[in-house]
Amino acid sequence: MRIQAINTVPIRYINKSTKTQNSYISNQISFGISEHERRVKDRIDDLTKNMGFIDKYIFGGKSKARQDAEKQIDKEDLDRDKELIRQATINEETRKRVAEQAQYTARINQLNEQNSARMAALEQAQQQHIQWQKEMFEQTQRTNQIIMQQIENFSNLMKEMQAMNAEAAKVQKELFSELTNARKAGNKIREEEINKIREELKKEFETKYKAKTEESERTRNMEEMFQKMHETNTAKGFGKIAGYKAEKEDLLTQIGNSIIAEKSGQPAEIPNGILFYGPKGNGKTLFAKSFAEQLDCNHIKVNVDVDDMENARNIKNAAKQAKEHFEKTGIRTIIQIDEFDGFLPFESDNRFRAYMKDLLDNISTKYHATIFATTNYPEKIDDIVLRPGRFSVAIPLSPANKENTLDIVKHYVKGFADDTVNCEKITDELIKVQPEEAYSNAKIKFIIKNLISDIVEKGKKAFNHNELLDCIKKSAPDISKKTLTEFLAQHELIHKLMVHM
Q1: Are residues 374 and 340 both part of a single domain?
Q2: What's the CA dihedral at 232, 233, 235, 236 to 10 degrees?
Q3: How many domains does the chain have?
Q4: Is the terminal CB of the chain with fewer CB neighbours within 10 Å at N or C?
Q5: Structural domain that includes position 443
């Protein structure tokens, strides 16, 4: 029995994952035992090292030790598998976190790039605006200097003419006294000399006086010219915008009539927002202020900041002021926001986007204000704010066509051009560059204003056709074909958004 018990101890390969397989070929004694069996054997030896022979083999100590060993090893394997699974889970979670961190970093980098591009665009727009302001300021400063100089010149001229008259009267009085004495003395020769001197002095005085009179006339002409320039620059409402009759009518029809009704106490549905878009220099900013003046509305301009929260504070303050103004006066406010693509682009802070969407849903009824937004790049504005109900009116402001260009030319040359100026031919010269390029309205105004300043400095009353034509030929168009192509695409995009949303 003892020998049988010894012989019945199996040496076999046991693998928990393949227990159902009855393959023992690779576990023959001649080739050693499996790792699992070795572990079981080592564990049995450890458990039975203090047992006697009888306890081991007669009373089943070794068999029980084997069962305990296998249970312990099974538990160890299970714990090991659990640890491997736990470690694999940790590794997978770590991998996911690393991937998420990489995505987050990439998103942050993308937002930084977008913000950098946004800041660059704002900087460019601000620089362009500053440049235009600088040019207009320099032109105004030069005009003011000319006015002050002419005032001083005119004052000096009057003093000189008064002095000339006084001096001439004094000399004539002295000569007349000498002439009387010569006649009394019967001195014919002296009498002739005095008469000759009087005649020469008279001619000299007339020549000088004529020159002073001509100078006085030039000064008077310049005064008239500056008065005309002042009248052009200080026009109110739509009177300061030449051309664009269709756009003016659109504004009055879609919102102006409702504002008039609101003023009279009648119920009126007034849009929350108006969007003007198109290439720079065509008067989008001017339209906003002119529209407010035309309808006698309060006007507030909100400047764009790179910080969304600062923009939120600015628009919130403007809305609050608009509400207070309406409660006191019953007058609606037009809140103007230029470069709106920089104010509310796609990458704006989510809280700011949510605030603006809520504001644009009720700013008209809650605050009695309408946002008048302008942009050169409507495609950069968050689509959700452009839907009807928020921006119900979207008007493209394209470079002036022939009709609008003719109106612009007539508006700015009025009172400064002579009879030779043919406005239609000047218009043809300006629009012949289209559709490859175009002159902006601001550029046309700048060309004519510069010419006016030149003729004023020269003391002329008017410029002629060739002078204006030469100025145009020397000035390159400021709107490129690329910009014109982008504008057409923008128009299609806005049309789709307004129709399908």
Answers
A1: yes
A2: 160
A3: 3
A4: N
A5: 402-478
Residue located via tokens 């090292």: 49
Place of tokens 């470069």: 339
Per-residue DSSP letters for 28-96? Answer: -GGG---HHHHHHHHHHHHHHTT--HIIIIIS-HHHHHHHHHHHHHHHHHHHHHHHHHHHHHHHHHHHH
Does residue 392 share a domain with residue 411? no
The mean per-residue pLDDT over the stretch 246-269 comes to: 86
pLDDT band for 499, please (50, 70, 90 cuts): low
Phi, psi of 331, rounded to the nearest 5 degrees: -110, 130
Class of residue 430 by CB neighbours under 10 A (exposed 0-12, middle 13-18, buried 19+): buried
385 within domain boundaries: yes
Provide the pLDDT confidence category of residue 403 given band limits of 50, 70 and 90.
very high
Question: Which tokens in the block code for residue 34?
Answer: 């499996």
> Tell me, what CATH number does 354's domain have?
3.40.50.300
In a domain, 76, yes or no: no
- In this structure, the answer to whether residues 382 and 346 fall within a common structural domain is yes
Categorize the per-residue pLDDT at 422 as very low, low, confident or very high, splitting at 50, 70 and 90.
Answer: very high
- Write the CB contacts of 451 (distance below 8 Å, at least 6 apart in sequence): 416, 463, 467, 468, 471
Please tell me whether residue 344 adopts helix, strand or coil conformation. coil
Highest mean pLDDT among 204-208, 411-415, 455-459: 411-415
DSSP state of 461: S
Alpha-carbon distance of 229 to 415, in angstroms, equals: 9
Question: What's the rounded Cα separation, in Å, for the pair 146 and 284?
Answer: 31
435 preceded by a cis bond (ω within 30 of 0) = yes
User: How far apart (Å, rounded) are the C-alpha atoms in residues 343 and 160?
Assistant: 60
Same domain flag for 349 and 418: no
If one counts every other C-beta atom within 10 angstroms of the C-beta of residue 138, the result is: 10
With vertex at residue 185, the alpha carbon angle to CA 179 and CA 187, rounded to the nearest 5 degrees, is 70
